[in-house]
Design brief:
There is one protein chain. It contains twelve helices and 13 strands. It has about 325 residues and is α/β, with parallel strands linked by helices. It has a domain at about 5-165 and about 195-225 and about 280-295: Rossmann fold.
Length: about 325
């Protein structure tokens, strides 16, 4: 019997780990990305641009499930220009062959929640440009599902940490300082409770959505996550495996905004700093009740993150 083909668009923080999980579960896996890379033996690599509708149709050919794990540069302008094209092209490509479309999304469209835990019923209420973009994309995605254009499901996650998380708060900016013996500078308030999703948990959750029965489709799911802690507390989890204490200093909000005038990436981050003004907590109870997937133990996640950081940031 021929193996099911699962097509993963995007080989960044989540996509590559997702592809490995699917391959290990016995699926045939095709990874779609812009440039060459090193992947486990057995993964088919297809290079191209997902803003090209014709290419997307070719890349999705014969697929049972298609996963959208792509993100352009962290910029509202880039998101507004590129993400709708990704979404429309994958809706058409997956829908055209009857494949399931699994979309990885964030929580930006939910806006401020007054510290209340976020779940699948939390209404969309964006308070940022990037949140407005995400809200429109979610509406477009589920409109297509309701119209019968595509069978889709969405998994949402908060900020990432863990292996491959170079562009996260616990990535380049954090580990380069810590591993050189310096204090980590947090661009957000490190003392506010905040859900951080461990990257392999996100990938495992998406794999579950890609293989779930039809009752999971047409819905948003909060992907599995560890209990929310402060940014400072999460950093402290790394200390036993690092063999040293981690000092963390908060960057004043006025400085973050000032730097944003000169450094575009920091300006984009400043727009989202409201997520650390109050408790930002994800409730994943519904996902855990429906799927046989639980987050990795916090100790195992901390150890794996430190191992990855050492390998990535030390010569």
């Amino acid at each position: 019997m021929e193996k099911e083909l699962h097509v993963v668009f995007g080989a960044g923080q989540v996509g590559a780990i997702l592809a490995d999980i699917l391959l290990s579960s016995g699926k045939r896996v095709r990874m779609v990305k812009r440039s060459q890379g090193i992947f486990p033996a057995g993964i088919e690599l297809m290079l191209g641009d997902a803003t090209d509708a014709t290419f997307c149709h070719r890349a999705c050919m014969d697929a049972t499930a298609v996963y959208h794990c792509m993100n352009p540069e962290y910029s509202a302008k880039a998101w507004a220009e590129t993400l709708p094209r990704y979404t429309d092209n994958l809706i058409a490509a997956a829908g055209g062959i009857g494949a399931r479309l699994v979309v990885l999304d964030n929580l930006y469209m939910l806006g401020r929640t007054a510290g209340k835990p976020m779940n699948e019923n939390t209404p969309s209420n964006p308070c940022s440009k990037k949140g407005e973009i995400r809200a429109r994309l979610a509406e477009r995605l589920f409109d297509a599902h309701r119209q019968g254009t595509v069978r889709t499901v969405c998994g949402r996650a908060a900020d990432f940490y863990g292996p491959r998380g170079k562009l996260t708060f616990f990535g380049d900016f954090f580990w380069k300082s810590v591993l050189s013996g310096k204090a980590a500078i947090s661009p957000v308030n490190p003392n506010v409770i905040h859900t951080y999703h461990y990257i392999p948990d996100v990938a495992q959750g998406l794999a579950a959505l890609g293989c779930a029965d039809e009752s999971a489709l047409g819905q948003v799911w909060m992907l599995p996550c560890q209990p929310a802690v402060t940014t400072r507390e999460l950093a402290a989890r790394f200390q036993p495996y690092l063999g040293q204490s981690i000092q963390m200093k908060a960057m004043p909000r006025w400085l973050l905004k000032s730097l944003g005038l000169f450094v575009p990436m920091i300006g984009e981050l400043a727009e989202m700093a409201y997520q650390w003004d109050e408790s930002f907590v994800v409730d994943d109870c519904r996902f855990r009740a429906h799927f046989d997937v639980c987050p990795v133990a916090v100790e195992e996640a901390a150890r794996a993150t430190v191992d990855w950081a050492r390998m990535t940031y030390t010569s």
